[in-house]
Amino acid sequence: MELNKFSRTLTQEVTNPAAKAMLYGIGLTTEDMQKAQIGIASTGYEGNTCNMHLNGLSVHVKKGVQENGMVGLIFHTIGVSDGMTNGNNGMSYSLPSRDLIADSIEDVVGAQWYDGVIAVVGCDKNMPGAMMALARLNRPGMLVYGGTIKTGEYKGKKLDIVSAFEALGQKFAGTITDEDYEGVIKNAIPGAGACGGMYTANTMASSMEAMGLTLPNSSTYPATHEGKKAECLAIGAAMKNLLEKNICTRDIMTRKAFENAMTVVMAMGGSTNAVLHYLAIARAAGIEFTLTDIQDISDRVPLISDLKPSGKYYMEDMLAIGGVQAVMKYLLQEGLLHGDCMTVTGKTIAENLAEIPSLDFDNQKIIYPLSNPLKASGHLQILYGNLATEGAVAKITGKEGLKFEGTAKVCECEEEVIEFLQKGEIKPGMVIVIRNEGPKGGPGMPEMLKPTSAIMGAGLGNSVAMITDGRFSGGTHGFVVGHVSPEAQSGGNIGLVKDGDLITIDAENNILQVHVSDDELAERRKLWKPIESPFKQGVLRKYIKNVSSASLGCVTDL
Ligand code: FES
Asked: Distance from the CA of 373 to the center of ligand 1, in angstroms?
C-alpha cells in the first residue's frame, strides 16, 4: 500500500458510492463531490488554556478552506496540558499523548483519504505529534499554532505558569504570605493561549515555523490577537496553492529544514524537549538526524534571545519587534539558516523573508547581536560519560556557570525531591539525582518542573544541580541535565548512584560522570533490579512495551 507522496488535485471526484452517500448525508452537494477534501485536525479541549480556543480557530480555518473551493472537515484529537499534569501522576500520560496525537491524525487522514491536512495545535505535545503525523502522511499539509498567552499580573509583577510553581517553593521557604501565594495562583493565567515564555509550546511553534510548516509569524501572534484569526482565514488559500503545486510535507521537511528548526531553537533559548521531539519527527519524515547533529548545531549557533525561562521577556513581547520572522531574517543574513528550503507559502524561506523588516538592535533588547550573544554557543548541550553512555541533554544558558561538581542526593522519584526539600535535606553543593522517571520507568518520562521550580523558589537555584532520566519542562531553568540515557529502568548507571557519590557535570567538555570505579559499579549492579511497574494494562502498558530510549526520541514505532 502506497501511503506516501500522494498526487492529489483540486478536482478529485469521490467515486466510492458508500462514501458518496455518507457525504451527501453530512450535507455536501453534488458540486462538493468534485472538490478536494481537507481534514482539519483540532486539538481543541475545554479543559486547559492552551487548547480551549482551538475549536474556535478551526472554524475559521474551515471557513478559509471552503472559501477557496475545497471541502473542510473538522475532526478532533487529544490534548494533554503539561502545565496541569506537572508534579502529579498525570504527567506519565503527557509524552505518550504526542504519539497518540500522531497516530490519531495519521489514522483519520489515512482512512478518510483526505487530500490535505491542517492541524490546529496549542499545548506542548500537540505540535510534535501533529508534525509526526504530517511527516508520515506526506501529503499537502500545514499547521496553525493556537498562539501564546498573555502574561498575568499581581502586585505589579508579570506572571505566568512557572510563577505558580515558584510560588510553591517560596511557600516552602517561608518567603511568601498565604495571601500573596493565592494572589499569584489566581492571577498567573489570564485566558487562552500556550504558556508565555520560550517554553516547550513556543519552542516548538517557533521551530516549526522555521521548518516552513506554518504561515509566517504563526508562532508570534498571541492567541487572542486579531492576527491569529487572520492567519486561520488565510490558511485556505495556502492549502489550495500546496494542492495545485502538489507540495507535500516531505518536500518541506528536509534535512536542511531540520537544521533550520534546531537553529531557531538554539538562538531563541528553546526547551530541551525540542531535542526529543525533533529526533522523533525526523524519524517520521525518514530523515537521518541524531544527537550528534544537534550538538553540531549547538556548537555553531549562539544563544541570542533574552526570553523566559532564563531571560526577561515573554513571547508576547516578540510581536513588537517583528516576531520570529525577524529573528529568522537575521539568522539568514548571518549565514545560519538555509534560505532555499520550501515552505507552506509555496515560496522558500529566503523568499518569505525578503520583505520582512530587519531587527532594530538600537531599539529592542530581546534579541542580542551575534557579536554580543548571551552565550557563544547553544544552551542545549549533549553530554556523555559513565552516567549517560547514550547521551543526556543539558540546558545551560551560562548564567549558572558551565561546570558543576557536587555530591549526589538520590531521589527515587520526583516526589522525594519535595519531601527532602521540606525536611531541609537538600543543601548547596549537591547534585540531585532523580531516577526511575525515564520513558519506561516514569513511565512517560515526566517533566520535573515542580522540583526545579521549588528549588528555585527555595533559593537553591544557583547552588545545586539536578540530573534525571526524566525530562524538564520548557519552563525549567537552573543547572539541569535531563534525558539521561540509558534510563535507570533499562539498567543505566544512573540507577546505581548512591548518596554522597561525586558527580561532574561539564557543559564545556560535554561530560556527565560519576566518580565511581567500573568495578564498584559492577558490584552495585549485582544488587540492582528494575522497579515493578504498576501499569499492567492500557495506554501506559503499551507505551512501556514500545517506547524507545530518549536518545532516539522516545518513538513508539521502531
Ligand atoms: Fe500547555 Fe504550557 S501547559 S502550553
From this structure: 28
